[in-house]
């Protein structure tokens, strides 16, 4: 490589931020431009470079976070210094930094308020506030839909903080940053309207267990599943998960046992485990509630998954917009490590495993598993084309099992109850309990747990249906709308498919008639346009043309809208057929369903 | 029919293209096989010397059993595959992709695009007069080549050529995302402030003329660029001992640009600044 880092220098603060992450520079070659710290004779002959340094490329995203957290934005000098430390070409690092919406390449105030303007919050909020000294930005869904409208206050500085504000009722003059310990643990329970119900399996600890206490977790049955896993052995765990019929809860519904088996069987190594906690589907917040309310459950499930697939290193890729979940998970991982439940020789079983948390930085697309790998590796979060599939070539090109939070925590009841008992819950092809995120115009928004097979009406009866109910969005922005007279749709993968819609990630968002449908559709189109990675033409340009057409017909209906609807269909079909990844392939789903099922734009 | 030159012996895979049985060596792409079978599948982002990025999606074909269409340029052929290149579904996607591209960027210097617009009956104007376009001004910041990103289809070829696939200079990358994504050096600075060593390998691979020789750019602006009047002569570069092949494009007895044959086993079309741009001395007539 022939790298040129330029001669802009970092400020002391920027340098300190990078050094706090990577340690002080080891040689003059790594030092900031024009500065020869402790130049030694060896430096004249020896440079840390080549493979050793390039292997740290995956520290690029943490490094950008470090600078952005400390200073609030990323200057030329700071970027150049980070690149020099990691031997990353500055043009590439710039490409990565500009990919994420939480980073700024221009100076801005140290306080940034991200105000959610997405579906659930759009109805509840009164637009962008004007706060002196605070940079206010529109934000896609912040994952706090049950407490809409939501906002996130991010403050840069030596003690950087991020404070979720939901419901957001304006900014107090100086909201004190809250520490994770200071958070009442009942808070996660507030998102669970069924709290206290004896039928809960996945949510049973949330709101009752102290999320900061490993002992409390154990007192509530924690780590029984891991002991059973060790008793069964890796192949036994996979058999149990397969027999239980567990399928991925992220939307694709792939059998988890098959994925694990395929990963475990790969001769290449090392194997990796990735937990996808980049929950960014508008309307989804269940993974956040699980991580905030029952963090050790995820640590335990990841340990079991790693044991089954032969991984010794796991990554938890967590949305950048979830500061509370980040704090809770970091704390839980530290505690587990301190007590021998992570690290070498877990529970004296000779199995070693550890978890590293990686923070996303504002990019919906990083929830796509291959984009997530790219992001961890320090590249732009652009999906890779498949095949090869992650079980064969995933993170760092190695066999990888990637599962989302909800899928993983299902492994605990599978092992404690046993596969037959677990499989007896739900329907024949959709087994077990399922989490639903109910938001929008309902009386009791929140995360609900129901066995697969309950109907949409059952769920909405629990949550309190609005009157009049205008439409229900199933599966989030990538899902589809259904009508209020379709409440008997069974909430299973096969049942929704038969009804011509999708369960997706388990989003159920209801709309009454206070919000005009064309405005909701426009917001969905805008979301996809802004979150497209830009790699492939059908999605990069198609999402723009889709938004333009919807803008044109916002005020039209009947035959007047026909030409643009025909255009939308043609573009939509191409996005679905020819895009590289699921984002482009689903960007037209909700709009198509609104036209066909709800009769949007019909006179 | 054999799709690519057989090096070391490779297994032949049997599958069908448009119902006809074909054989291709293991490792070949569907595109290799289609071309060998005489099918004309359009491509833009595919490059003969680069790993396909499959970003443009004009080469999509139908593969039996696949939920979505498949990019022929990068999907490896598999035994028993049933490929259909000319279905309504594939043609529809190609047509709309061409329309999407032509409505957002300037394809006036893209070879074969007129032919494909006609072939697929594409109507880029139908997105209306207000359809968003890139709308970039050409960047003329050095004497060797011009970056006119209004013509850029974001095929990633220049990034790959400058990066780990050929030049290893890593001067340029994709920045931003979505419709706002652009090829840029760090902080979107002028090329002269970047790591660029002016090898011109990015210009060599650019499929749309977004990157072009300053000489070509100036002549086009002056209306004197005339490809029909140009002759091409391949010779050996005299600067050093490597022996790279140079193809001199000559118009009116002046060298107007220099390319390099991609099938040359030594250079695969890559040159350095001297071979690519250092031709003035040849035509110094004093
Ligand atoms: S479909 Fe969209 S998000 Fe996915 S790769 Fe293509 S441009 Fe990127
Ligand atoms: S001229 Fe060479 S070094 Fe410069 S950007 Fe192009 S490929 Fe990279
Ligand atoms: S400048 Fe040319 S080679 Fe580079 S991405 Fe754009 S079209 Fe492709
Ligand atoms: S040529 Fe295949 S996707 Fe561009």
TrEMBL record, chain A:
Q: Which Gene3D superfamilies match?
A: 3.10.20.600, 6.10.250.1450, NADH-quinone oxidoreductase subunit E, NADH-ubiquinone oxidoreductase 51kDa subunit, NADH-ubiquinone oxidoreductase 51kDa subunit, iron-sulphur binding domain
**Entry keywords, A to Z:** 4Fe-4S, Iron, Iron-sulfur, Metal-binding
The cross-references to SUPFAM superfamilies, in alphabetical order and at most eight, read: Nqo1 FMN-binding domain-like, Nqo1 middle domain-like, Nqo1C-terminal domain-like, Thioredoxin-like
Which part of the chain is the NADH-ubiquinone oxidoreductase 51kDa subunit iron-sulphur binding domain? 518-563
Q: Which organism is it from?
A: Streptomyces xanthii
Recorded hits in Pfam families, A to Z, give:
2Fe-2S_thioredx, Complex1_51K, NADH_4Fe-4S, SLBB
Stated name of the protein: NAD(P)H-dependent oxidoreductase subunit E
- PROSITE patterns recorded: COMPLEX1_51K_2
Automatic annotation (TrEMBL), chain B:
Q: Name one GO molecular function term.
A: 4 iron, 4 sulfur cluster binding
Q: Which residues form the 4Fe-4S Mo/W bis-MGD-type domain?
A: 230-286
List residues of the 2Fe-2S ferredoxin-type domain. 11-89
| Ranges in coiled-coil conformation | none
* Any Pfam family the entry gives: Fer4_7
Keywords for this entry? 4Fe-4S, Iron, Iron-sulfur, Metal-binding, Repeat
Top-rank taxon of the source lineage equals Bacteria
Q: Does the keyword Zinc apply?
A: no
What InterPro entries is this protein classified in? 2Fe-2S_ferredoxin-like_sf, 2Fe-2S_ferredoxin-type, 4Fe4S_Fe-S-bd, 4Fe4S_Fe_S_CS, Mopterin_OxRdtase_4Fe-4S_dom, MopterinOxRdtase_cofactor_BS, PSI_iron-sulfur_center
Q: Which residues form the 4Fe-4S ferredoxin-type domain?
A: 143-162, 188-216
The record's listing under SUPFAM superfamilies reads: 2Fe-2S ferredoxin-like, 4Fe-4S ferredoxins, Formate dehydrogenase/DMSO reductase, domains 1-3
* PROSITE patterns noted in UniProt: 2FE2S_FER_2 (PS51085), 4FE4S_FER_1 (PS00198), 4FE4S_FER_2 (PS51379), 4FE4S_MOW_BIS_MGD (PS51669), MOLYBDOPTERIN_PROK_1 (PS00551)
Question: Which SMART domains does the record cross-reference, listed alphabetically?
Answer: Molybdop_Fe4S4
**Name of the protein described by the UniProt record:** (2Fe-2S)-binding protein
Q: Which organism is it from?
A: Streptomyces xanthii
């Amino acid at each position: 490589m022939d790298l040129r880092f330029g001669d802009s220098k970092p400020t002391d603060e920027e340098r300190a931020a990078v050094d706090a992450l990577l340690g002080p520079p080891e040689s003059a070659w790594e030092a900031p431009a024009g500065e020869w710290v402790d130049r030694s004779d060896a430096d004249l002959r020896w440079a840390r470079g080549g493979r050793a340094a390039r292997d740290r490329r995956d520290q690029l995203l943490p490094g950008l976070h470090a600078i952005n957290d400390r200073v609030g934005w990323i200057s030329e000098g700071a970027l150049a210094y980070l690149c020099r430390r990691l031997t990353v070409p500055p043009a590439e690092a710039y490409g990565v930094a500009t990919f994420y919406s939480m980073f700024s390449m221009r100076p801005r105030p140290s306080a940034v308020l991200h105000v959610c303007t997405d579906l659930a919050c759009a109805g509840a909020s009164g637009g962008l506030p004007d706060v002196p000294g605070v940079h206010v930005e529109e934000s896609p869904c912040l994952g706090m839909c049950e407490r809409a409208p939501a906002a996130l206050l991010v403050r840069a500085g030596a003690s950087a903080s991020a404070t979720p504000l939901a419901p957001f009722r304006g900014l107090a003059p100086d909201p004190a940053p809250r520490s994770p310990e200071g958070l009442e643990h009942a808070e996660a329970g507030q998102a669970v309207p069924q709290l206290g119900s004896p039928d809960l399996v996945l949510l049973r600890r949330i709101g009752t267990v102290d999320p900061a206490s490993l002992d409390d977790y154990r007192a509530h049955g924690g780590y029984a599943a891991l002991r059973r896993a060790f008793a069964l052995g890796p192949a036994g765990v996979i058999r149990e998960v397969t027999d239980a019929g567990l399928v991925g809860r992220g939307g694709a519904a792939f059998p988890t046992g098959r994925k694990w088996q395929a990963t475990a069987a790969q001769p290449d190594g090392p194997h990796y485990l990735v937990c996808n906690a980049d929950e960014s589907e508008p309307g989804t917040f269940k993974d956040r509630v699980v991580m905030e309310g029952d963090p050790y459950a995820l640590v335990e499930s990841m340990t079991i998954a790693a044991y089954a697939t032969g991984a010794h290193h796991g990554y938890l890729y967590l949305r950048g917009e979830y500061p509370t979940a980040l704090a809770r998970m970091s704390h839980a991982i530290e505690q587990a490590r301190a007590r021998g439940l992570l690290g070498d020789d877990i529970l004296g079983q000779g199995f070693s495993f550890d978890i590293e948390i990686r923070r996303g930085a504002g990019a919906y697309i990083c929830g796509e598993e291959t984009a997530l790998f790219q992001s961890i590796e320090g590249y732009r979060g652009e999906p890779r084309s498949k095949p090869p599939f992650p079980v064969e070539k995933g993170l760092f090109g190695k066999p990888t099992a990637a599962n989302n939070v909800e899928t993983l925590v299902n492994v605990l009841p599978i092992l404690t109850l046993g596969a037959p008992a677990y499989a007896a819950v739900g329907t024949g092809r959709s087994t077990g309990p399922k989490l639903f995120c109910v938001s929008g115009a309902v009386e009791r928004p929140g995360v609900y747990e129901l066995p697969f097979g309950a109907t949409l009406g059952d769920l909405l009866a629990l949550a309190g249906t609005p009157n009049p109910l205008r439409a229900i969005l199933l599966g989030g922005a990538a899902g589809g709308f259904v009508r209020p007279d379709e409440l008997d749709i069974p909430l299973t993968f096969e049942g929704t498919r038969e009804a011509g819609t999708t369960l997706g990630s388990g989003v159920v968002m209801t709309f009454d008639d206070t919000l005009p449908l064309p405005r909701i559709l426009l917001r969905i189109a805008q979301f996809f346009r802004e979150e497209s990675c830009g790699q492939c033409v059908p999605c990069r340009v198609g999402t723009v043309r889709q938004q333009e057409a919807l803008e044109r017909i916002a005020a039209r209906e009947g035959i007047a809208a026909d030409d643009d609807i025909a255009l939308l269909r043609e573009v939509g079909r191409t996005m679905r057929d020819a895009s590289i990844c699921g984002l482009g392939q689903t960007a037209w789903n909700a709009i198509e369903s609104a036209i066909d099922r709800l009769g949007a734009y019909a006179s | 029919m054999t799709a690519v030159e057989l090096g070391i012996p490779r297994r032949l895979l049997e599958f069908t293209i448009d119902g006809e049985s074909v054989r291709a060596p293991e490792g070949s792409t569907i595109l290799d096989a289609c071309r060998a079978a005489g099918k004309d599948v359009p491509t833009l982002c595919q490059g003969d010397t680069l790993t396909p990025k499959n970003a443009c999606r004009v080469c999509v074909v139908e593969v039996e059993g696949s939920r979505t269409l498949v990019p022929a340029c990068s999907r490896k052929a598999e035994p028993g595959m049933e490929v259909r290149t000319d279905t309504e579904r594939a043609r529809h996607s190609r047509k709309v992709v061409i329309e999407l591209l032509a409505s957002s960027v300037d394809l006036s210097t893209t070879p074969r695009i007129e032919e494909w617009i006609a072939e697929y009956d594409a109507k880029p104007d139908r997105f209306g007069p207000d359809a968003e376009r890139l709308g970039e001004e050409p960047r003329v910041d050095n004497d060797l080549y011009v970056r006119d990103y209004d013509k850029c289809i974001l095929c990633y070829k220049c990034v790959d050529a400058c990066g780990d696939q050929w030049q290893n200079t890593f001067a340029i990358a994709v920045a931003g995302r979505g419709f706002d994504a652009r090829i840029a050096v760090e902080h979107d600075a002028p090329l002269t402030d970047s790591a660029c060593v002016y090898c011109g390998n990015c210009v060599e691979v650019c499929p749309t003329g977004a990157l072009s020789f300053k000489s070509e750019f100036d002549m086009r602006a002056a209306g004197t660029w005339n490809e029909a009047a140009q002759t091409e002569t391949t010779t050996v570069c005299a600067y050093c001992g490597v022996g790279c092949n140079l193809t001199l494009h000559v118009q009116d007895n002046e060298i107007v640009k220099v390319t390099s044959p991609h099938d040359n086993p030594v250079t695969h079309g890559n040159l350095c600044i001297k071979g690519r741009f250092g031709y003035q001395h040849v035509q110094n007539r004093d």
